[in-house]
Amino acid sequence: MNSSPSQQALRVFLVEDTIPIRQRMAARFGAIEGVEIVGEAEESGAALTGIDATRADVVVLDLRLTGGTGMELLHDLEHSTSRVITIVLTNHSSAGFRQACLAAGAQYFFDKTGEFDLACNTIKRIAHERCARGLNYTGAHHV
């Protein structure tokens, strides 16, 4: 974790079925000041349980998961009691996927190949806004 004891870190949960990509995500996002990676999963059932158990603030998810899809997870999160910011980070980045994810409740949508840095910058901005406000930041902008 890269936050000082006096501030609460932005708790990020990663849902990605490819281990090297998940490791890259954990390394890059976890290096952001004020961000803590609180859990990881490769399928939606374990992700939903982990998100609830860790009280994650942000979930970064892929659309293709082991034994399910990110769309199913988005639907489950939309209907759960957990209030999380959802960021889709995927290679399935056509306009149709983007529109479907945003309609299903994702606040952000990024192409894994060309927009990884933009996803990092978005998490950084959310963490900094949350720290500046001194409370749980739940506002989001559609991208």
Automatic annotation (TrEMBL):
Coiled coil: none annotated. Residues 11-127 form the Response regulatory domain. GO terms for molecular function: DNA binding. Keywords: DNA-binding, Phosphoprotein. InterPro entries: CheY-like_superfamily (IPR011006), NreC/VraR/RcsB-like_REC (IPR058245), Sig_transdc_resp-reg_receiver (IPR001789), WalR-like (IPR039420). This is Response regulator transcription factor. The modification 4-aspartylphosphate is found at residue 62. GO terms for biological process: phosphorelay signal transduction system. CDD domains: REC_NarL-like.
